[in-house]
Amino acid sequence: MYFKFKRLIDIVLSLIGMVVLSPIYLILILAIKLESKGPVLFKQKRVGINKTHFNILKFRTMRIDTPKDTPTHLLKNPDQFITKVGKFLRKTSLDELPQIWNIFVGQMSIIGPRPALWNQYDLIEERDKYGANDVPPGLTGWAQINGRDELPIEEKAKLDGEYVERIGLKMDMRCFFGTIVSVVKSDGVVEGGTGSKEKEKKTRESM
């Protein structure tokens, strides 16, 4: 029953969001086009509910010569590929705004586990342990307000599992308002930083 209510909320809020945010969309589109060549939107194959695939939408934040289907944290020097506008978009999470369309058409939800890349087999496998691949992926979620890029794969999947266990209006509200706080503070945003807490710990131990 809650999932039907959740879907209704997704449709209503995403529709309102597209209308209200349209001036911001226009400004960002102009900024992206003026700085670098290439399309405004970036499409990438991601894992949806029950491990089906869909194309997630983002504002393009990287140069068009960036290696395709490679997670940012696996690039040797991700900063060299990120545009100036892109750096701002990533820091403020504005690059995620086009996903409102993914939510509107039912490929995503506002709240849920962040959709993995189709080739992030380690994360997909870990999420299977907790049933986190069996719910709609989200624009933001429990893991995003508890570490985001800093979390190692195992911990991120475990937090996604906690969300699945506690899914409901109260949990979604916590994630929603927690995301607002995280975005304002830019908590957990680390370029090339998936698992950066773990990497930092190993670095300290080796010194």
Descriptive report:
There is one protein chain. By secondary structure, this protein is mostly helical. It has one domain. It contains eight helices and four strands. The chain has helices at 2-20, 22-35, 84-92, 99-104, 121-128, 153-166, 169-185, 196-206, and strands at residues 41-47, 53-59, 109-111, 138-140. Helix 5 runs parallel beside helix 6 (153-166).
Outline the secondary-structure elements:
Layout: H1 2-20, H2 22-35, E1 41-47, E2 53-59, H3 84-92, H4 99-104, E3 109-111, H5 121-128, E4 138-140, H6 153-166, H7 169-185, H8 196-206
Parallel strand pairs: 3-4
Antiparallel strand pairs: 1-2
Helix pairs in contact: 5-6
Estimate the helix proportion, in percent: 40-55%
Strand order of the largest sheet: 1-2
Order of helices and strands: HHEEHHEHEHHH
Measure the end-to-end span: 53 Å
Unreliable spans = 199-207
Query: Structural class, from secondary structure content?
Result: mainly alpha
Number of domains: 1
Output the number of helix runs: 8
| Count of beta strands | 4
What percent strand?
Answer: 5-15%
Query: What oligomeric state do these chains adopt?
Result: single chain
Computed Rg: 17 Å
Mean pLDDT over the residues = 87
Largest sheet: 2 strands, antiparallel
User: Which outline best applies?
Assistant: globular
